[in-house]
Amino acid sequence: MAAIYSGIYLKLKSAKTSWEDKLKLARFAWISHQCFLPNKEQVLLDWVSHTLVSNYNKKLELDDEVVEKLWTYLDNVIHSRRLQDLLKSGKTIGLSFSIAQVINERLSEACSQKTQQNIGTVLNCSSGILSTPSLSIIYTAKCELLVDLLSKLCKLACQQLSSDDTVGCQLFSVLQLTFAQYLLIQRQQTNPNRVFGQVTGHLLQPCLLLRHLLTVRGWTQADDNHVRQHLSREIRNQIETLLQTGLFQAELFSSYKEELLPEQEVQEKKKGAFKSLLLPVNTVQTNLGSDFCEPALHGAVVAGSVSLLYKLFLDSYCKAENHLVCFHMFSRLFGCLRLSDLRQGGRENMLSPVDWSTELLALEQLLSLVLSSDIYNVASDRIRHKEVQFGFYRELAQMLLTHSQASIPAWFRCLKLLISLNHLIVDPDLDDLVSSAWIDAEASEPRMKKPQETLINTVFQTYSKLRQFPRLFEEVLTVICRPAVDELRPPIFSAGLTVKLRECLLEIPPNQILDILCLFVEKCQTLIIPAVEGSTDMALKLMAVCSVLHAFLFNMRSLDDVTPSPVVLRTQNLLAKIQKGIIQPLMELLQAPRREEEKSDLWLRKASDTTLLLVYTWVEVDTLFGVSCSKYVSPTAKIAGAVTEPAARQGHFSISAFLPGLREQSWERVMEIANSFASPSKYCLELLTLQKMKMILMQTKADLQALQHAAAFILESGRSTMSRGESEPWDGDINVISDLTYPTAHWHLVVSNLTILLPYISLKDVEYVADVLLETLMLAKAQEAAMDQEPSISTEKISLGLMHSSFLPEMKILHCAFLTRLIIKFSMMLPTATRDPVGLPLQQLFASNIPWHEEILSPCKTLDLLEVPSENKLLKDELSWSWKTLEKVAQSIVSLAKSGCPVTLKESQLEGCLGLLDIFSLLRLDSFLPSDCTRCFLVLLSLLANTRASVSCSKLLLLKFLSTCLHLLRCLQAGRNANSVFKVLHASDVLEAVMTSQFTASKFFSDVLTVPLWAQYLQEVQAFLEDFLQMVIERRQSVRLNLEKFISFLVSCKPDTSAAKSKDRKNWNPAAEQLRLMAFTTLCHVVTLYLQQLPEKKLHSADVLSALLEPVVLQMVRTVEHGLQSNTPNQLLPVAFIPSVTTLLKADLSHPVRRGWQKEPSGFLEQPRIKLYQEFYSQILRELPCAGHNLQFLQPALQFLMVFCSVPELYPGKETAVMVGFAIKKLLSDPAITTQVIQSMEMELTEVLVQLLGNCSAEEFYAIMRLVLQGLELRNVWQQKAKMQTKEACQDPSLISIIVVPILETVAALLRQGEGVLVNPHHVSLAFSILLTIPLDHLKLEDYRGVFLGVHEVLFSIVQCHPKVLLKAAPSFLNSFHRLVVSVMHEGRQKGDRGNTDEFEVILQCAHLVERMYTHIAAEMEDFTVFSAFMVAQYVTELQKVTLHPAVKTHLTEGIYHILDLCIERDIKFLNASLPAGVREVFKDLYNDYNHYHKAKKQGEEKYTA
Q1: β-pair type (947-949, 903-905)
Q2: Rounded to the nearest 5°, which phi and psi values hold at 739?
Q3: pTM for the full predicted model
Q4: What is the pLDDT of residues 317-354, one digit of tens each?
Q5: DSSP letter string, 1293-1345
Q6: How far apart are the first and last CA of the chain?
């Protein structure tokens, strides 16, 4: 042994041995058990450590390759299992401190060289050292080494994040581990000054830089996922903890206080001896101010850091007595921002827009912390501290307003925070605030508009509460009257601000509102109107002032009969002043004759817009006040009758109605200017005309002609702009109407007032409205995705809103006209060359010479408003011209379908038809007349039967088109006018036309039979046929004839002629085959259901219909047999086949001859048929495990098995129900079968198992149960799977009902098997660990009910079936049951109005179950007597915390009374002595009630019990 030892040691020390040999020898020595060295592991670790240290101390000159191998050897040793086992066994092995220094130096070199190559092994070594306690002592014993390591790792991480390289996991894992070690050491250190010095001297700068880079990093998919999602967040949290405990310990507060409050320092010096002053704030500021990173990053890092540091400072020191210190810390940290230079007169252009955004964001965060921490107390600051805080905030406000940054959202938020602190901070500069943040601010983008509106809303609320709203709007008026910064100012009131203004105006005294209005009117009269002519600037000011007047008058509280008379009088005078002082001078200005070139001047256009806006506002408000307030007298009261005079009969509003001095000729000049542009004035003219209509309708006798002229004028006003089809969204503000937003505003006005306009417009105008509606809807379908993101009003949104509203069906004229325009559009979609033969039926459906809606349109043709068309004038349906036309069209469609000459549609035309069908689906079909419903049916039938897609067309698009047509036909069939189609068509003709077209179209679908759209299409065809056949049978008119014709057609039709002639049928069209089979199946299903419901008296009809089904069944059998033969081995059965065979089997089993068939098969169930079912069953079992998540196959396959398994005699050969169980087990074990898939087929799966287990023998049942439990060890299932799944599911509330409840149901079912099955008691006790992991609080009520019932069932199963286990595990049982009691108390506490009755019933049910459990424990479990006092103590302790609802308390009290029955006198004394004071009082009340009610009642019952 000595020879071996000396040999190895000498060779490792020898200079003659090559380093390759030394490394080989060292590796051998470490792993070999034949190498015996005293303290071998320590010797080898010392050798490699000494070698690496010597190399870095320049005592050895080693090649880089050798050094790397030495590091690798050290890494392998540290991470070896051998070393870990030795350390676990208690052996002492360590490393020298010098190796830690070498690791740090190696990382330092990597930092300085800015390369991270070849340091992976070093990082691994450091990771192994830090994660091994006996090795990590080299860092933890010398904290300086750990601090140095952490600093180097932070710098390396910063370099990696700053580079374009992908981020790996290794470095950040080591960094996270190092942070954890340092935080552990940091908490153990007792000298806060030393910790502060470590952090500020070595860690503060790299940590702040690292945190910033982790926050702003644009992560990519190439970056390591663990770093991106977990480590980055953990490291940021660790940095915050490090800074919190390092910089802001409680012991350091005195130093902060002395530095931040200099006067405090003087007082301290007077009191005691001089002590060295630590300057923590100055140290932090110096760290932030020094160049610790690239200049481009420095500002952003500091801006992101000051708010963090201030938050940590407040978390540590923010108390009421320290608020002044906290403020001074805020001011010092603000001084670290570049923004602070501007406060001292620095240049604004030194900051770029990006820098501004970063700095303002930091300031916003600082101010938010000040506000949320309630640092600024206005009174305390003024009285005690000479307004030091107020002065600082004033300087901040002045700086922000001097250097306006309205393009940055944070700028608005900073001002809002300052106002929230104290409005007086901003009040001296209110005019600058109004100007830069509101009137002159260009905040058009949503990201700026929202914070701007929030700021102005705060200003509104502040000044309205202070009752200083007039002062605010004095400043607004001052700003408006200043020379504008830009020629066109943004609108003063956006839609959002108007809402906020309305809220404030409702709270402000009316006299203050009138003061503001008088101020604006006076300024307008004296300053603006005299100088408006020829001045664009004055015209824009006039527009701004009048927009404020409009906003106030429209949003203030209306006058009513309770309004004080002085307010009413002031309002009257104000409106009179507006009329005489503003409107009349402006009218005189506009009516002056002008040259053509002058009419396009901007000032004139703006003056026109302003005038008409003010006129409309005046008329609207004057009318409203007159209606709502009896004390109000209009300035135009003397000429109130002017509305009905001839002047009012013109197509426009008569201005002489309230401006007596204005001639009609002058008014027409004003109108000429207004109508020359799509502008606010044109829109106001429409509003005035609408107002005129309302005023006429309010008269005793309405002037019909004037109403018709006014309605026509409104529609005609916007016709030219609507026809261009160009529009932009509009926010509802009249002032911003332009050429592109005018169409939206006009259409909004028309649609909003259709109920007023529609009775008075001509039929051509109705058609025009229907046309616009259809065009905008077609545009809406094309732009659906973009519309959802647009908050403003658009023509498309308006039209969609009308279609979805309940008003359109009530407007029968427009509804019917819209249908006609829709049919015209369908007709226009057909190709031009072939429109005559196929398009002729559609053209006849909108022929103008046919009275389609005589009964609806006749009121429009009468001149007498009060005349109502009599029902006697309507023609009978049978004699109606329109019905005769519909009959001709129907026959034309059917003949075209039979002739096989469909029109070919290109893909674009097919897409256009689909878009129209989407619009068609929005119609309320039940609101149409029977003739219109028939027109709809014929249009859809024509599209189905008389069109086909071109060869190049997308097959999926064609499937969608056909499915949509069939779906809409079904919707028509479900309506109240469904039978109207049979007036013009025979049922068999419809069925034949539809199926012929589908057989023709199916030639295109041979290669898409596996896509989901094909299955959906088949479902639509099936649903259509089923509904239509059902309706044919229910009508009971020519049922046999129609069915015979349809069956004859299906039996005789050959979907593919060439395939039919071919003997081997290789060319048979599989799509047509599936369609035909599906039609047979549906027919068989409908007729079979009908036969089952027939009474015994009508057995003759049953025999007739059964005879009709015979050829159908034969065809189905042949088709299924051919399908089974031709089906590809590795492909699932076609979707249509499975329901067909299921229907066949159901029909056979329900046939009257089925009695006694088991003994001797007869009737339909012949031997060949049995063989077919058995073959199909075998095919299903083969394919079931391979189906994956294909629900379109799984659901019908399980439905077939459900029917098949109900008759055990059908199993082929020696097969039994066990084979089905095996196939289902294989299916459910497929990874593709997710929880969602199981939920989707849960009903079918349950039915199969019910039939399977209900019709099998005892041996088969035993085999199936063994199959289910095969390979499962009960303990593993409970202890690992159930417990693990329950814990995971409990963390995600959405999984409660999916996983937790089924697990509880399964556990309860297993427990109910009893002690005979669950022999090991430990397995039963494992159920308690599951119950204790399940949450019973903060659940939705439906989840709570499921979980409560599940836990209760588990506990009750243990009580009933495992009494022996219960006695041994009584504490666990009581703990689980007590959680149920507590949860019921929590849910059943009094909450005022209980709300939903159903929800309360659930709580009562749970309380009743608790009562039942208490009762059962008391009655059946005598051994539980020892726990009775404990159970009562638990109950009263919780009862003391809540106030229960009486109904819930009744149940719980009754239950606990039964437990009190078990308590003996000693237990009662014990409870009275041991319970806390408050709980003891609750117990005494409970025990008194128990003696008074329950015990007395019980003794009385016992007295009279034999």
Answers
A1: parallel
A2: -55, -35
A3: 0.74
A4: 988 888 999 999 999 999 999 888 887 665 666 788 89
A5: GGGIIIIIHHHHHHHHHHHTT-TTT---HHHHHHHHHHHHHS--SS--HHHHH
A6: 95
